[in-house]
Automatic annotation (TrEMBL):
Responsible for synthesis of pseudouridine from uracil at positions 955, 2504 and 2580 in 23S ribosomal RNA. It comes from Luteimonas yindakuii. The active site is at residue 147. SMART domains: S4 (SM00363). This is Pseudouridine synthase.
Amino acid sequence: MAHSETPQRAGGARTVRVPDDRDGQRLDNFLLGQLKGAPRSLVYKLVRSGQVRVNGGRAKAERKLAGGDEVRIPPVRIEDPGTPGRPAKGLLQAIESSIVFEDARLLALNKPSGIASHGGSGISFGVIETLRALRPDEPFELVHRLDRDTSGLLVIARKRSALTTLQALMREDDGGIAKRYLALLAGRMPDGVMSVDAPLHVGLRQGGERHVQVNQAGKPSLSHFRVLERRGGHSWCEVRIETGRTHQIRVHAQHIGHPVAGDDKYGDPEVNRRLRDQIGLKRLALHAASMEFALEDGRVPYVLHAPLAPELATVLDALGG
């Protein structure tokens, strides 16, 4: 179904009817598609100021739209997209070379540590913007996000149907998607599986930085940690998560007294300094290793893997047994 728009005067606001195949899309993502080249920060500013209206009323950026909704979009002057330029050549190459799987529905890549999933907060280009620059005719959409400092498997939808199916699976409590991470935790974790069932609340610190903590007012969050190996007095673990909260693994690891090595926000500064000086750990030791799910009502199974980042493998070798 095509977009339909009300007539408008030059430079005036326009009203766009949400097509049926965008049912369930967040307002901010819908606006980014309508305002080509607009930075995410501008979209949020327009929404916060009330200039964007849904069915005549104010709405939040995270609001899920329904097919047939009427969205008022104010006139926006966007600088020539050629002005800010494209992502740097090195970033384009890094993202292109990190693709580990693609088919007609999905693309998966092994995201390097230090690259954001999407732009915003002073970052012009994340993975999704870089992919769109590489292939401007593709309707790429992020299925989920990884923290900037986490490496590993990031799944991108190439079809709207795949995006909506995967997002529905992620909302299921019975684990519609199995996610497996690898992490180096500080200190000696006990043997066996340690399950952490602790609600997480996202707060904002001065300057708008997100800080997450265990808090009964937060959302239910469940992680399972299992030691794979002991390395230099620390624990190389497999982590499986049943919920996908912001910073979940990092905060749960901190909560049980074994923070993720190299974590500048929730970690142990002394352990981080020692690991940096002795074996050169200069990043968060957390890697999204695999995801399993099925599309087309369970008929098409996917098992996607992202090899461990070389710099983490080097750190593990340096730690020894």
